[in-house]
Amino acid sequence: MKRALIAAGGRGTRLRPITHTINKHLIPLANKPMIFHAIEKLADAGIDEIIINTNPGDTELSKFVGDGSRWKVKIKYVEQQGGALGVAHVVKNAESYFHGEPFIYFLGDNIVLGSLKPLVEKFRHEHLDACFIFAKVRDPQRFGVPEIRDGKLIRIIEKPENPPTDFAQTGVYLYSSKIFEALKDLKPSARGELEIADANTAMIEKGFKVGWVETEGWWKDTGKPEDLLEGNQFILANLRFEDNKNQAQIGNRVIVQGKIQIGKGTVLDENVLVRGPVIIGENCIIKNSYIGPYTAIGNDVEIYNTEIENSIVFEAADINASTRIVDSIIGYNATITPAHATLPMGHKLIIGDHTVVEI
Predict the structure, then answer these.
(1) What is the pLDDT of residues 63-84, one digit of tens each?
(2) Distance (Å, rounded) from C-alpha 354 to C-alpha 23?
């Protein structure tokens, strides 16, 4: 298995307003674009060539991700003809790229901890036509849910009101070319999309050899802001912190505790406490502030007189809040200032669609 397909289209409506200005697959988790985590997993599993599905006319991903040479893989891009017509349509749209060979299908907004190698080995050794990963979740009605009887996979039900199990189908699928036979007669669902759950059920019903495993690692579908924060938490908790200071300028009144990674050119001075796991990018300035666990701070960020914890801060943000910020996602070049810094006093808000503010 040397090829893979990453779904990186869609509009990320549940992540607005963040996705008004950035493709959701480029949102940083632990200071790395989300799609980079997927590419790394696939490269580690022995994949040589990756096809990335994009929205029609989208050139942002290809400019940012490039040709794959940084991961020693080849990356090609294919537009999803007709627009976002479903997760299964992404596979159908890319059929000509696989030349009858097996491939991994990876939803680019999914975060998986743990190697894909055991799944690839199971697929190969058992001569499967499809292999799925299931994970136990609190809210299976949000996902495709497997119906399993006596250990046998019967079908996958998309977003059922009454889930037959507490498993969710994760966004990683291994397929032989038989998947395209299952897709031939697939009909759009009530919401007008070709559902991957229906395609997987069709493979079972056609008698193809289908296997599954329960994930031994951790999996997250980052469809909502709180999912992004949780994904960031788990990546930071499992990150290998190497060269963690990078010759950053750290003042005498700075306390650094736990797992910390600090980028080159960053200055920490004037009464700063950093308590990991935390990752701070390059050329940042942090003064008179507390940076708490599970916080990722991008490059060129300035933070003054602020406590911040369990948050994602994009590049070039300027924060001088004189308060405590928690469980937050702060976008590129955002500015946060204290309410009393200007007159008249009060909370000044410029709020776009889908914004969430707690005052």
Answers:
(1) 999 999 999 999 999 988 877 7
(2) 16
